[in-house]
Backbone:
């Protein structure tokens, strides 16, 4: 057998004639006689199990495979394994060397989020590890992802527990760099709901829309899990003619007519105004809440 040749195969994505391909490249040991290479492409079919999808014998220091949406789809983790042998004596083979797994598809960074009901914005990056093709003259080179939120605690009805800065994002074609061929960012914020509803889990889903290409049409990226940590909330009250109880439990009355600033935060853009109109009689002047506005 040939000794280990340090072929170090690496998978990179590439557009070939407008179609998405993966390219396996490897090193050539300079001191050796002319070599041939057997390149075996495989995908992770189930955790821990690989399925062979293509086998090439080549003199070149690279091998291509097309992501056609049939035997190789978005969402697959792909490997290439390279074995070298001399042309004169094919039985003299090197030890097979396997690339790192290449995940082909949409990735979220971070893959999961743990946030609190504190109003802070958290940046979520959505990237494609494969290049975006241009299917026709009338289409711009982009993938549009429609975003939606699912609350996993189905017993709790009501609004979502998180808010996104966008309902959809566009992944525009760009040169591949590192593990990203196209990227977009948005922010995720926990909804401050003033309810003591415990820690809740939501999922963000991204679905490609309006795409005719088989590769993208049948693909739904993996969801992002978002855990929202409940924070204790304060309460203040203004009721009947109006009696007021402040956050710290202090009580007073305000019988006047007019518009008043009921509450204003000193640390963030949050305030509540109340409007009080006359609801008393000739004997007792009093006012009632008739309107409220909150920012």
Residues:
């Amino acid at each position: 057998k040939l000794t280990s040749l340090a072929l170090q195969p690496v998978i990179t994505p590439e557009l070939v004639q407008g179609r998405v391909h993966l390219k396996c490249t490897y090193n050539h040991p300079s001191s050796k006689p002319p070599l041939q290479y057997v390149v075996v492409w495989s995908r992770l079919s189930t955790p821990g199990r690989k399925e062979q999808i293509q086998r090439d014998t080549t003199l070149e220091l690279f091998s291509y495979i097309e992501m056609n949406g049939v035997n190789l789809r978005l969402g697959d983790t792909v490997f290439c394994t390279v074995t070298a042998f001399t042309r004169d004596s094919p039985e003299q083979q090197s030890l097979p060397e396997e690339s790192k797994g290449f995940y082909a598809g949409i990735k979220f960074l971070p893959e999961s989020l743990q946030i609190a009901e504190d109003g802070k914005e958290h940046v979520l990056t959505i990237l494609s590890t494969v290049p975006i093709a241009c299917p026709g003259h009338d289409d711009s080179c982009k993938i549009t992802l429609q975003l939606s939120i699912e609350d996993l605690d189905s017993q709790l009805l009501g609004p979502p527990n998180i808010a996104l800065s966008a309902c959809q994002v566009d992944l525009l074609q760009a040169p591949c760099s590192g593990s990203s061929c196209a990227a977009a960012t948005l922010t995720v914020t926990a909804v401050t709901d003033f309810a003591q509803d415990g820690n809740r889990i939501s999922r963000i889903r991204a679905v490609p829309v309006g795409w005719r290409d088989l590769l993208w049409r049948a693909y739904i990226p993996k969801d992002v899990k978002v855990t929202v940590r409940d924070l204790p909330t304060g309460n203040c009250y203004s009721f009947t003619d109006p009696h007021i109880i402040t956050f710290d439990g202090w009580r007073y009355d305000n019988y006047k007519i007019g518009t008043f600033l009921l509450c204003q935060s000193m640390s963030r853009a949050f305030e509540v105004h109340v409007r009080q109109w006359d609801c008393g009689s000739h004997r007792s002047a009093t006012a009632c809440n008739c309107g409220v506005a909150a920012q």
Summary: The mean pLDDT is 88.
